[in-house]
Amino acid sequence: MARLHELAEIIRGVSFDKTEASYLPGLDRLPVLRAGNIQDALLIDQDLVFVPLNRVSENQRLRPGDIAICMSSGSSEIVGKTAVLERPWAGSVGAFCAIIRPCEEATAPGYVAAWLKSPWFRAWTRRSEGINIKNIRRSELEQLDVPLPHLTEQRRIVDILDRTVSIRRLRRQARETVQLVIPALFSKMFGDPAISPMQWPMVPFGNLLEACDYGTSEKASEDGNGVPVIRMGNVSIDGFLDLNVLKYLPGSASDNHRYLLRNGYLLFNRTNSKELVGKMGLWDANFDAVAASYFIRIRVNAGNILSELVWAFFNTPYMKRRLFETARGAIGQANINSKELKSFAVPVPPMALQHAFVTKVASVMRIRKQHSIAGETEGRIAAAIQAGAFQA
Protein backbone atom coordinates (compact mmCIF):
# COMPACT_ATOMS: atom_id res chain seq x y z
CA MET A 1 0.00 0.00 0.00
CA ALA A 2 1.01 3.63 -0.50
CA ARG A 3 -0.53 6.95 0.45
CA LEU A 4 -2.11 8.84 -2.47
CA HIS A 5 0.17 11.85 -1.91
CA GLU A 6 3.15 9.54 -2.53
CA LEU A 7 1.74 8.58 -5.94
CA ALA A 8 0.27 11.89 -7.12
CA GLU A 9 0.20 15.63 -6.53
CA ILE A 10 -3.16 17.06 -5.47
CA ILE A 11 -3.73 20.62 -6.72
CA ARG A 12 -6.55 22.90 -5.59
CA GLY A 13 -9.01 24.24 -8.15
CA VAL A 14 -9.19 27.87 -9.23
CA SER A 15 -10.97 30.36 -6.95
CA PHE A 16 -12.60 33.35 -8.59
CA ASP A 17 -15.31 35.91 -7.97
CA LYS A 18 -18.56 35.43 -9.88
CA THR A 19 -18.30 38.98 -11.19
CA GLU A 20 -15.03 38.03 -12.91
CA ALA A 21 -16.45 35.02 -14.73
CA SER A 22 -17.92 34.97 -18.23
CA TYR A 23 -19.53 32.44 -20.55
CA LEU A 24 -17.65 33.99 -23.48
CA PRO A 25 -14.02 33.12 -24.29
CA GLY A 26 -11.34 35.75 -24.78
CA LEU A 27 -7.60 36.09 -25.28
CA ASP A 28 -7.22 37.17 -21.65
CA ARG A 29 -9.32 34.30 -20.26
CA LEU A 30 -9.05 30.56 -19.62
CA PRO A 31 -11.90 28.03 -19.40
CA VAL A 32 -12.68 26.43 -16.04
CA LEU A 33 -14.49 23.12 -15.56
CA ARG A 34 -17.12 22.51 -12.91
CA ALA A 35 -18.56 19.37 -11.33
CA GLY A 36 -20.98 18.88 -14.24
CA ASN A 37 -18.06 18.57 -16.64
CA ILE A 38 -16.77 15.50 -14.80
CA GLN A 39 -18.63 12.60 -16.41
CA ASP A 40 -17.33 9.23 -17.65
CA ALA A 41 -15.11 11.41 -19.83
CA LEU A 42 -14.08 14.98 -19.12
CA LEU A 43 -16.41 17.39 -20.95
CA ILE A 44 -14.10 20.19 -22.08
CA ASP A 45 -16.17 21.54 -24.97
CA GLN A 46 -19.41 22.56 -23.25
CA ASP A 47 -20.82 24.34 -20.18
CA LEU A 48 -17.58 26.27 -19.60
CA VAL A 49 -16.90 29.34 -17.48
CA PHE A 50 -14.05 31.64 -18.52
CA VAL A 51 -11.93 33.42 -15.90
CA PRO A 52 -9.08 35.97 -16.13
CA LEU A 53 -5.67 34.48 -16.93
CA ASN A 54 -4.14 35.84 -13.73
CA ARG A 55 -6.51 33.68 -11.65
CA VAL A 56 -4.92 30.46 -12.94
CA SER A 57 -1.38 29.52 -11.90
CA GLU A 58 0.83 27.50 -14.22
CA ASN A 59 0.52 24.48 -11.93
CA GLN A 60 -3.30 24.67 -12.06
CA ARG A 61 -3.42 24.28 -15.83
CA LEU A 62 -4.59 20.80 -16.77
CA ARG A 63 -2.14 18.54 -18.61
CA PRO A 64 -2.89 15.32 -20.52
CA GLY A 65 -3.07 12.50 -17.99
CA ASP A 66 -4.26 14.79 -15.17
CA ILE A 67 -7.34 13.63 -13.28
CA ALA A 68 -10.13 16.09 -12.41
CA ILE A 69 -12.07 15.26 -9.24
CA CYS A 70 -15.20 16.82 -7.71
CA MET A 71 -14.37 17.71 -4.10
CA SER A 72 -17.69 19.23 -2.99
CA SER A 73 -21.32 18.74 -4.00
CA GLY A 74 -24.82 18.49 -2.62
CA SER A 75 -24.95 14.88 -3.82
CA SER A 76 -22.85 11.94 -2.62
CA GLU A 77 -23.23 10.51 -6.13
CA ILE A 78 -21.32 13.45 -7.60
CA VAL A 79 -18.66 14.16 -4.99
CA GLY A 80 -15.59 12.07 -5.75
CA LYS A 81 -16.36 11.64 -9.45
CA THR A 82 -13.22 11.63 -11.56
CA ALA A 83 -12.28 11.89 -15.23
CA VAL A 84 -8.98 12.07 -17.08
CA LEU A 85 -7.88 14.79 -19.50
CA GLU A 86 -6.93 12.76 -22.56
CA ARG A 87 -5.64 15.47 -24.91
CA PRO A 88 -3.92 18.87 -24.69
CA TRP A 89 -6.29 21.59 -23.53
CA ALA A 90 -5.76 25.08 -22.12
CA GLY A 91 -7.89 25.27 -18.98
CA SER A 92 -8.32 24.29 -15.34
CA VAL A 93 -10.96 23.27 -12.77
CA GLY A 94 -13.03 25.40 -10.39
CA ALA A 95 -12.80 25.76 -6.63
CA PHE A 96 -15.16 22.83 -5.89
CA CYS A 97 -12.87 20.50 -7.83
CA ALA A 98 -9.19 19.57 -7.74
CA ILE A 99 -6.51 18.15 -9.99
CA ILE A 100 -4.79 14.86 -9.22
CA ARG A 101 -1.51 14.67 -11.14
CA PRO A 102 0.05 11.17 -11.00
CA CYS A 103 3.82 10.92 -10.55
CA GLU A 104 5.14 9.12 -13.61
CA GLU A 105 7.99 7.53 -11.64
CA ALA A 106 5.71 6.03 -8.98
CA THR A 107 3.02 4.20 -10.99
CA ALA A 108 2.20 2.85 -14.42
CA PRO A 109 0.33 5.33 -16.67
CA GLY A 110 -3.39 5.19 -15.93
CA TYR A 111 -3.10 3.19 -12.70
CA VAL A 112 -4.05 5.99 -10.28
CA ALA A 113 -6.97 7.00 -12.53
CA ALA A 114 -8.16 3.37 -12.60
CA TRP A 115 -8.04 3.13 -8.80
CA LEU A 116 -10.04 6.36 -8.44
CA LYS A 117 -12.78 4.79 -10.60
CA SER A 118 -12.92 1.66 -8.44
CA PRO A 119 -15.87 0.74 -6.18
CA TRP A 120 -13.46 0.90 -3.23
CA PHE A 121 -12.74 4.58 -3.79
CA ARG A 122 -16.39 5.41 -4.54
CA ALA A 123 -17.42 3.75 -1.26
CA TRP A 124 -14.88 5.93 0.57
CA THR A 125 -16.18 9.14 -1.05
CA ARG A 126 -19.78 8.35 -0.01
CA ARG A 127 -18.64 8.63 3.59
CA SER A 128 -17.56 12.23 2.96
CA GLU A 129 -18.55 14.74 5.63
CA GLY A 130 -21.46 17.16 5.53
CA ILE A 131 -25.22 16.97 5.89
CA ASN A 132 -26.42 19.06 2.96
CA ILE A 133 -23.06 19.56 1.24
CA LYS A 134 -20.73 16.59 0.85
CA ASN A 135 -17.03 17.39 0.96
CA ILE A 136 -13.74 15.59 0.50
CA ARG A 137 -10.95 17.14 2.52
CA ARG A 138 -7.70 17.46 0.64
CA SER A 139 -5.74 16.29 3.69
CA GLU A 140 -7.82 13.10 3.93
CA LEU A 141 -7.52 12.44 0.21
CA GLU A 142 -3.74 12.77 0.41
CA GLN A 143 -3.60 10.18 3.23
CA LEU A 144 -5.80 7.65 1.43
CA ASP A 145 -4.23 4.18 1.18
CA VAL A 146 -3.88 2.88 -2.39
CA PRO A 147 -2.92 -0.74 -3.23
CA LEU A 148 0.40 -0.75 -5.07
CA PRO A 149 1.24 -4.01 -6.86
CA HIS A 150 4.33 -4.46 -9.03
CA LEU A 151 4.48 -2.29 -12.16
CA THR A 152 3.84 -5.33 -14.38
CA GLU A 153 0.61 -6.05 -12.50
CA GLN A 154 -0.38 -2.38 -12.62
CA ARG A 155 -0.02 -2.38 -16.41
CA ARG A 156 -2.09 -5.57 -16.66
CA ILE A 157 -4.88 -4.04 -14.56
CA VAL A 158 -4.89 -0.84 -16.64
CA ASP A 159 -4.97 -2.87 -19.88
CA ILE A 160 -7.98 -4.94 -18.77
CA LEU A 161 -9.90 -1.91 -17.53
CA ASP A 162 -9.06 0.09 -20.67
CA ARG A 163 -10.67 -2.64 -22.75
CA THR A 164 -13.89 -2.52 -20.71
CA VAL A 165 -13.91 1.29 -21.06
CA SER A 166 -13.45 0.99 -24.84
CA ILE A 167 -16.42 -1.38 -25.11
CA ARG A 168 -18.63 0.97 -23.10
CA ARG A 169 -17.43 3.97 -25.11
CA LEU A 170 -18.40 2.23 -28.37
CA ARG A 171 -21.84 1.46 -26.94
CA ARG A 172 -22.29 5.08 -25.84
CA GLN A 173 -21.22 6.33 -29.27
CA ALA A 174 -23.75 4.00 -30.90
CA ARG A 175 -26.51 5.35 -28.65
CA GLU A 176 -25.51 8.95 -29.40
CA THR A 177 -25.50 8.22 -33.14
CA VAL A 178 -29.05 6.89 -32.85
CA GLN A 179 -30.07 10.09 -31.06
CA LEU A 180 -28.82 12.19 -33.98
CA VAL A 181 -31.41 10.54 -36.21
CA ILE A 182 -34.28 12.45 -34.56
CA PRO A 183 -33.00 15.99 -35.38
CA ALA A 184 -32.27 14.79 -38.91
CA LEU A 185 -35.83 13.43 -39.19
CA PHE A 186 -37.29 16.70 -37.96
CA SER A 187 -35.26 18.71 -40.46
CA LYS A 188 -36.20 16.39 -43.34
CA MET A 189 -39.94 16.33 -42.57
CA PHE A 190 -40.48 19.91 -41.34
CA GLY A 191 -37.49 21.89 -42.60
CA ASP A 192 -35.10 24.17 -40.74
CA PRO A 193 -37.23 26.38 -38.43
CA ALA A 194 -34.71 29.21 -38.84
CA ILE A 195 -35.86 29.73 -42.45
CA SER A 196 -39.37 28.11 -42.33
CA PRO A 197 -39.18 26.57 -45.83
CA MET A 198 -42.47 24.67 -45.37
CA GLN A 199 -44.42 27.78 -44.32
CA TRP A 200 -46.33 25.97 -41.59
CA PRO A 201 -48.62 28.11 -39.40
CA MET A 202 -46.66 29.54 -36.43
CA VAL A 203 -48.75 29.58 -33.24
CA PRO A 204 -47.84 30.99 -29.78
CA PHE A 205 -46.93 28.01 -27.63
CA GLY A 206 -49.34 29.11 -24.92
CA ASN A 207 -52.27 28.61 -27.33
CA LEU A 208 -51.35 24.93 -27.73
CA LEU A 209 -51.30 23.99 -24.04
CA GLU A 210 -53.71 22.34 -21.64
CA ALA A 211 -51.45 22.70 -18.59
CA CYS A 212 -48.28 24.58 -17.76
CA ASP A 213 -47.19 24.62 -14.10
CA TYR A 214 -44.08 24.51 -11.93
CA GLY A 215 -42.78 21.38 -10.22
CA THR A 216 -42.40 20.75 -6.50
CA SER A 217 -39.97 22.63 -4.29
CA GLU A 218 -40.15 20.05 -1.47
CA LYS A 219 -36.81 18.67 -0.29
CA ALA A 220 -35.87 15.28 -1.76
CA SER A 221 -33.61 12.62 -0.26
CA GLU A 222 -31.42 9.78 -1.54
CA ASP A 223 -32.84 7.04 0.70
CA GLY A 224 -34.83 5.38 -2.11
CA ASN A 225 -38.18 5.67 -0.32
CA GLY A 226 -41.11 7.56 -1.83
CA VAL A 227 -41.63 8.95 -5.32
CA PRO A 228 -38.71 9.73 -7.67
CA VAL A 229 -38.30 13.45 -8.34
CA ILE A 230 -36.90 14.48 -11.74
CA ARG A 231 -34.22 17.15 -11.37
CA MET A 232 -32.12 19.22 -13.79
CA GLY A 233 -29.45 16.54 -14.19
CA ASN A 234 -32.05 13.98 -15.26
CA VAL A 235 -32.54 15.75 -18.61
CA SER A 236 -29.52 15.98 -20.91
CA ILE A 237 -28.60 19.08 -22.91
CA ASP A 238 -30.14 17.50 -26.02
CA GLY A 239 -33.39 16.63 -24.24
CA PHE A 240 -33.00 12.93 -23.43
CA LEU A 241 -33.84 11.46 -20.04
CA ASP A 242 -31.00 10.24 -17.81
CA LEU A 243 -32.53 8.41 -14.85
CA ASN A 244 -29.42 6.74 -13.43
CA VAL A 245 -29.28 9.02 -10.36
CA LEU A 246 -32.58 9.80 -8.66
CA LYS A 247 -33.75 11.45 -5.45
CA TYR A 248 -37.09 10.81 -3.76
CA LEU A 249 -39.96 12.68 -2.14
CA PRO A 250 -41.68 11.12 0.88
CA GLY A 251 -45.15 9.70 0.34
CA SER A 252 -46.91 7.89 -2.48
CA ALA A 253 -47.75 8.95 -6.02
CA SER A 254 -51.26 9.94 -4.92
CA ASP A 255 -49.78 12.09 -2.13
CA ASN A 256 -47.81 13.99 -4.77
CA HIS A 257 -50.41 13.89 -7.57
CA ARG A 258 -50.20 17.66 -8.13
CA TYR A 259 -46.71 17.28 -9.64
CA LEU A 260 -47.05 13.79 -11.13
CA LEU A 261 -45.73 13.18 -14.63
CA ARG A 262 -47.76 11.33 -17.24
CA ASN A 263 -46.56 9.78 -20.48
CA GLY A 264 -46.11 12.53 -23.06
CA TYR A 265 -45.65 15.38 -20.58
CA LEU A 266 -42.90 17.84 -21.46
CA LEU A 267 -40.32 19.09 -18.96
CA PHE A 268 -38.98 22.59 -19.58
CA ASN A 269 -35.90 23.50 -17.52
CA ARG A 270 -36.72 27.09 -16.52
CA THR A 271 -33.67 27.70 -14.24
CA ASN A 272 -30.10 26.64 -14.93
CA SER A 273 -26.81 28.01 -16.26
CA LYS A 274 -27.31 30.17 -19.36
CA GLU A 275 -26.21 27.44 -21.77
CA LEU A 276 -28.47 24.82 -20.20
CA VAL A 277 -31.60 26.78 -19.31
CA GLY A 278 -34.42 25.84 -21.68
CA LYS A 279 -33.61 22.14 -21.90
CA MET A 280 -36.78 20.35 -22.99
CA GLY A 281 -37.35 16.72 -21.97
CA LEU A 282 -40.12 14.31 -22.91
CA TRP A 283 -41.41 12.02 -20.16
CA ASP A 284 -41.75 8.46 -21.46
CA ALA A 285 -40.58 6.36 -18.50
CA ASN A 286 -42.76 3.55 -17.19
CA PHE A 287 -42.88 4.54 -13.50
CA ASP A 288 -44.45 7.27 -11.39
CA ALA A 289 -42.33 10.37 -10.81
CA VAL A 290 -42.77 14.08 -10.08
CA ALA A 291 -41.08 17.17 -11.50
CA ALA A 292 -38.81 19.39 -9.40
CA SER A 293 -39.39 23.14 -9.19
CA TYR A 294 -36.61 23.81 -11.71
CA PHE A 295 -38.99 22.47 -14.36
CA ILE A 296 -42.21 23.69 -15.91
CA ARG A 297 -44.45 20.66 -16.40
CA ILE A 298 -46.29 20.93 -19.72
CA ARG A 299 -49.26 19.09 -21.23
CA VAL A 300 -50.07 20.01 -24.84
CA ASN A 301 -53.47 19.90 -26.50
CA ALA A 302 -53.02 16.70 -28.52
CA GLY A 303 -55.82 17.72 -30.87
CA ASN A 304 -53.59 20.50 -32.24
CA ILE A 305 -50.01 19.37 -31.72
CA LEU A 306 -48.17 16.28 -30.50
CA SER A 307 -45.67 16.45 -27.66
CA GLU A 308 -42.95 14.61 -29.64
CA LEU A 309 -43.02 17.36 -32.27
CA VAL A 310 -42.75 20.11 -29.64
CA TRP A 311 -39.89 18.24 -27.94
CA ALA A 312 -37.95 17.89 -31.19
CA PHE A 313 -38.62 21.53 -32.15
CA PHE A 314 -37.36 22.93 -28.84
CA ASN A 315 -34.18 20.87 -29.19
CA THR A 316 -33.29 22.20 -32.65
CA PRO A 317 -30.21 24.45 -32.93
CA TYR A 318 -32.55 27.30 -33.92
CA MET A 319 -34.53 27.08 -30.67
CA LYS A 320 -31.38 26.55 -28.59
CA ARG A 321 -30.18 29.93 -29.89
CA ARG A 322 -33.54 31.57 -29.18
CA LEU A 323 -33.59 30.18 -25.64
CA PHE A 324 -30.02 31.36 -24.98
CA GLU A 325 -30.91 34.86 -26.19
CA THR A 326 -34.07 34.93 -24.05
CA ALA A 327 -32.54 33.67 -20.80
CA ARG A 328 -32.04 36.32 -18.14
CA GLY A 329 -29.77 36.21 -15.10
CA ALA A 330 -26.24 36.07 -13.76
CA ILE A 331 -23.45 33.51 -13.98
CA GLY A 332 -24.73 30.06 -13.09
CA GLN A 333 -28.36 31.12 -12.63
CA ALA A 334 -30.36 32.09 -15.73
CA ASN A 335 -34.15 31.96 -16.06
CA ILE A 336 -36.97 31.72 -18.59
CA ASN A 337 -40.41 32.04 -17.01
CA SER A 338 -43.73 30.54 -18.13
CA LYS A 339 -44.90 33.78 -19.77
CA GLU A 340 -41.77 33.88 -21.95
CA LEU A 341 -42.11 30.19 -22.71
CA LYS A 342 -45.71 30.60 -23.87
CA SER A 343 -44.74 33.45 -26.18
CA PHE A 344 -42.47 31.34 -28.43
CA ALA A 345 -43.97 30.66 -31.85
CA VAL A 346 -44.22 26.93 -32.63
CA PRO A 347 -44.84 25.43 -36.12
CA VAL A 348 -48.06 23.41 -36.46
CA PRO A 349 -47.84 21.01 -39.46
CA PRO A 350 -50.81 18.85 -40.58
CA MET A 351 -51.70 16.17 -38.01
CA ALA A 352 -51.08 13.32 -40.48
CA LEU A 353 -47.49 14.48 -40.89
CA GLN A 354 -47.10 14.87 -37.12
CA HIS A 355 -48.29 11.29 -36.55
CA ALA A 356 -45.88 10.01 -39.20
CA PHE A 357 -43.05 11.79 -37.38
CA VAL A 358 -44.10 10.32 -34.02
CA THR A 359 -44.10 6.79 -35.49
CA LYS A 360 -40.55 7.25 -36.75
CA VAL A 361 -39.42 8.74 -33.42
CA ALA A 362 -40.89 5.76 -31.54
CA SER A 363 -38.86 3.39 -33.72
CA VAL A 364 -35.65 5.33 -33.03
CA MET A 365 -36.35 5.44 -29.29
CA ARG A 366 -36.82 1.64 -29.20
CA ILE A 367 -33.35 1.19 -30.72
CA ARG A 368 -31.92 3.71 -28.24
CA LYS A 369 -33.52 1.79 -25.35
CA GLN A 370 -31.97 -1.46 -26.58
CA HIS A 371 -28.55 0.21 -26.53
CA SER A 372 -29.24 1.57 -23.03
CA ILE A 373 -30.17 -1.87 -21.67
CA ALA A 374 -27.06 -3.42 -23.23
CA GLY A 375 -24.99 -0.54 -21.82
CA GLU A 376 -26.34 -1.16 -18.30
CA THR A 377 -25.37 -4.84 -18.54
CA GLU A 378 -21.90 -3.91 -19.74
CA GLY A 379 -21.66 -1.40 -16.88
CA ARG A 380 -22.39 -4.08 -14.27
CA ILE A 381 -19.79 -6.38 -15.82
CA ALA A 382 -17.24 -3.54 -15.89
CA ALA A 383 -17.94 -2.74 -12.22
CA ALA A 384 -17.36 -6.37 -11.25
CA ILE A 385 -14.08 -6.46 -13.18
CA GLN A 386 -13.04 -3.16 -11.60
CA ALA A 387 -13.77 -4.42 -8.08
CA GLY A 388 -11.85 -7.63 -8.68
CA ALA A 389 -8.87 -5.84 -10.20
CA PHE A 390 -7.95 -4.17 -6.89
CA GLN A 391 -8.90 -7.00 -4.56
CA ALA A 392 -5.97 -8.52 -2.74
How is this structure best described in words?
This protein is an alpha+beta fold. The protein folds into 3 domains: about 1-145, DNA methylase specificity domains (Adenine-n6-DNA-methyltransferase TaqI, Chain A, domain 2, Alpha-Beta Complex); about 150-195 and about 350-390, Helix Hairpins; about 200-345, Adenine-n6-DNA-methyltransferase TaqI, Chain A, domain 2 (Alpha-Beta Complex), CATH 3.90.220. It is built from 10 helices and 23 strands. It has helices at about 5, 110-115, 120-125, 140, 150-180, 180-190, 305-315, 315-325, 340-345, 350-390; strands spanning about 1-5, 10, 30-35, 50, 65-70, 70-75, 80-85, 90-95, 95-100, 135, 145, 200-205, 210-215, 225-230, 245-250, 265-270, 270, 280, 290, 295-300, 330, 335, 345. The chain has a 4-stranded antiparallel beta sheet with strand order 2-9-5-7. A hairpin with a 2-residue loop joins strand 21 and strand 22 (about 335). The longest helix has about 40 residues, at about 350-390. The termini are close together.
Short note summarizing the structure:
The protein contains ten helices and 23 strands. The chain is an alpha+beta fold and 392 residues long.
Number of helix segments?
10
The major pleated sheet works out as: 4 strands, antiparallel
Intertermini distance: 11 Å
CATH superfamily of the largest domain: DNA methylase specificity domains
Low-confidence stretches: none
User: In the CATH hierarchy, what is the class of the largest domain?
Assistant: Alpha Beta
Task: Describe the secondary structure blueprint for this structure.
Elements: E1 2-3, H1 4-7, E2 8-12, E3 29-33, E4 49-52, E5 67-70, E6 72-73, E7 82-84, E8 92-93, E9 97-102, H2 111-116, H3 119-125, E10 134-135, H4 138-142, E11 145-146, H5 151-179, H6 181-190, E12 202-204, E13 209-214, E14 227-230, E15 247-249, E16 266-269, E17 271-272, E18 280-282, E19 290-291, E20 295-300, H7 307-314, H8 317-326, E21 328-330, E22 333-335, H9 338-343, E23 345-347, H10 351-389
Parallel strand pairs: 3-8, 14-19
Antiparallel strand pairs: 1-11, 2-9, 3-4, 5-7, 5-9, 6-10, 12-23, 13-20, 14-15, 16-18, 16-20, 17-22, 21-22
